[in-house]
Specification:
Length: 251
């Protein structure tokens, strides 16, 4: 975990630059959660691409919340989340989410959690050390990210086509194998998309259909790898390019 010094957004390419948004100090994972870290807590390994140093993927938002709870308990921390599996979250309006567990949060807890979208974008953009990059650590995506063009056997130069990605054996890569951003954080751009804590907001209003995710992944186009690009997915959704990293409050 790396301590991120809070403050207002100084990255001029951020969605939130100049909008009087202030982030508190917080801790965030140096890298995406690996399969080894996942197995140490959850025992199983749902990932499509297997390898201890690869990011865990094929995990839903609910899976990540359960990981945070179990890891917190194992380390003697107060869990940030509590899941009520016998209760339906009435705010969840998704027609595709078949789980809809009620998840409550304790903002004062010192346990592990997912980053908010604001925290994620702040960290990806370099925090107070920002150099105004479009991606997390550089303006050249190849330098800091595994994404659709460079995540396979050869560099793809054609238009995006998933069949080409499959033929090129595109996939996840070991965490921290590209260079870090200004804060020493790896893979915020590319490798796997990262779940965030929030409901996705449409026109500034959370409507209960999707959970937010950020950063693009090995399947993703350059556009979706940018720090200011906002993604979303049903909370029970999974994919071979969908992972996460963890946070903690500074208390």
């Amino acid at each position: 975990m790396i301590l991120i010094k809070g403050g207002s957004f100084v990255n001029k390419k951020s969605n939130l630059y100049g909008k009087n948004v202030v982030v508190n100090d917080f801790y965030i994972g140096k890298s995406e959660v690996t399969q080894k870290e996942w197995k140490d807590i959850m025992i199983n390994n749902p990932s499509r691409f297997k390898g201890d140093s690869l990011p865990v993927e094929m995990v839903s938002w609910y899976d990540c919340v359960e990981f945070c709870i179990k890891k917190s308990i194992k380390e003697g921390l107060l869990p940030y989340y509590k899941i009520y599996k016998d209760s339906v979250d009435e705010f969840n309006k998704s027609q595709f989410d078949s789980i809809k567990w009620l998840v409550k949060k304790n903002p004062k807890a010192n346990g592990y959690r997912l980053p908010t979208e604001i925290e994620w974008e702040y960290a990806a953009g370099g925090g107070q050390l920002s150099k105004n990059y479009s991606y997390s650590g550089d303006d050249t995506v190849e330098e800091i990210a595994w994404y659709w063009r460079n995540s396979g056997d050869t560099i793809l130069i054609e238009k995006w086509d998933y069949r080409r990605l499959e033929q090129n054996h595109c996939r996840t890569h070991p965490v921290t194998s590209k260079k870090p951003n200004e804060l020493g954080l790896y893979d915020l751009t590319g490798n796997v998309r990262e779940w965030c804590d929030d409901w996705y907001e449409d026109d500034g209003i959370p409507r209960g259909h999707f959970r937010s995710q950020r950063g693009g992944g090995w399947i993703g186009l350059e556009l979706h790898c940018k720090n200011d690009d906002r993604g979303y997915f049903e909370a029970d959704g999974i994919g071979p390019d969908q992972g996460f990293r963890i946070c903690r409050n500074k208390v």
